[in-house]
Design brief:
With about 150 residues, the chain is an alpha+beta fold. It has helices spanning about 60-65, 90-95, 100-149; strands spanning about 1-5, 10-15, 20, 30-35, 40-45, 45-55, 60, 75, 80-85.
Length: about 150
């Protein structure tokens, strides 16, 4: 459903509704969470992994606009959600005319980048541990074969 808050259009979503999917065209829009919470999920293999939860006052869908690329994640309403729609030109104007907003967005982008790096390091650590377990299992299996032969 669409409405307006002042001169800004809004969209509402019910719990579990998809706001946009990873790979979708950004359609020149970002959003500001006005009410509710939004889950951000990325597809890893066949699994959707929760990477962030956004609440009132947080920007959503800005990566695609800043990168001029498709959506990098899927956004799902975790509860009833109202989003303020920010067309790319309006977001651009807001960032250029409001240094405090620009700094807040830069901080947020940096924090998201660091969180992604942390997840990548954790994944590497888990993969290395799994490789070590597999190697140990192979060594044990080869040792037990030697005893039975």
């Amino acid at each position: 459903m669409s409405r307006q808050i002042g001169d800004i259009p809004t969209r509402t979503f019910g719990p579990g509704e998809v706001i946009f999917r990873q790979g979708d065209d950004a359609k020149g829009e970002a959003f500001l969470v006005h009410l509710g919470t939004v889950e951000i999920r990325i597809k890893v293999g066949e699994e959707q992994r929760l990477v962030n939860t956004l609440k009132k006052g947080e920007l959503l869908g800005d990566f695609a606009l800043f990168r001029n690329a498709p959506r990098s994640a899927t956004a799902i309403a975790a509860e009833p959600v109202t989003l303020m729609v920010l067309p790319a030109n309006r977001l651009d104007h807001m960032v250029r005319s409001n240094p405090a907003l620009a700094m807040a967005i830069i901080r947020d982008l940096a924090n998201r980048m660091l969180a992604a790096e942390d997840r990548a390091r954790e994944a590497e650590t888990r993969a290395a541990a799994a490789e070590e377990r597999a190697k140990n299992a192979e060594t044990r299996a080869a040792g037990s074969e030697g005893r039975t032969g």
